[in-house]
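Problem 12. The chain below contains 345 residues. Write out its predicted structure in token notation.
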Amino acid sequence: KKSFQCNEIIRYRIINNELFRYFNDGETISLKDSSLEKAIKTLLLLEPIEDLDIIISHQDGIPIGGQSEKFYITEKKEMQAPILCYAKKRDFLLVILIPDWRSVSRWWVKEIKCVLKAIKKNSWKSKKNYAFWRGSLTNGIRSKLCKLALQYPNHLYAKLNAKVENADLQTKLEQEGIYCSKGWYPMKKILENKYLPLMDGVMSAAPAFQSRLLSNSLTLKQDFPGVQWFFKPLKPYVHYVPLKHDISDLIEKIEWAKENDDLCKEISKNASDFALNNLMFEDVYLYFYLVLKKYSSLSLINREEIKKDVKNDLNWINIQYREKLKKKLLKNSLRKVCNFAAPDF
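Solution.
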């Protein structure tokens, strides 16, 4: 509780196939489900899951920002539990990877349809030998990419398309010519280009990587320390072309791709096939279900004890039926409530 905000790392329990969430003292109770909570409840409706007690991080990864690498490690080993999270630094122990909140939401369904529609209008042969990127400023490597685009306009286009909160920094980005006020680009226009750089975000690049793999364009993936749940089977020069962490080889790799068009076409097809077979909406849900099922099978919790705990501790709230919860809380006025779904942003 001292290491993170209460809405970022949350404890849940599944008891009798119903979802409970722990709200800290004084914490506002959200009356709407987050995307991840909706996903868990959907799975519970489709297939029962044995009782379990889990901790889920809604951060972009573990660790992020100024967090120490062992902020989640307890002094007493018997009190240690794994954390489920969207991304983590490679080889981090006790962090179990699950799909990010966008990938279990309608957003990913719409994105899949949008990409597949754009693919039909953009065959590999019709695409331009050009790299295209746009995104937000989550770290310095992205501004470096945009500055490279100014130096090599015949090789790539790259712009920041989301304003930053710091007014002075925003002015600087505009003066440097790396910010574009046009925030949105149609997928059809993006996929007119053969090469799509993938830059690290806060951690990893969810769900941008999934979209690029599906796109029938070539992903130029920066080497970054974060990994997601589907990374393990992916191989360089089979599913993507790797870039150095500092992207100093980007222009060289674009030139290489132009000279090896047939191979790059094959790599893009391998990536699309992988996405179609492993990253569709139902695949994401199946993986998430299998994680929860496996976790439950390995759990050593005393199920009768946690049932009593949930019954006696008022901080445990049954969120399986939010409408019932809403009526109960508004009637009793015992806790602060809100109509938004934290921690979706």
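Discussion. The longest helix spans residues 261-278. Students who got a different answer should revisit the alignment rule from Section 12.3.
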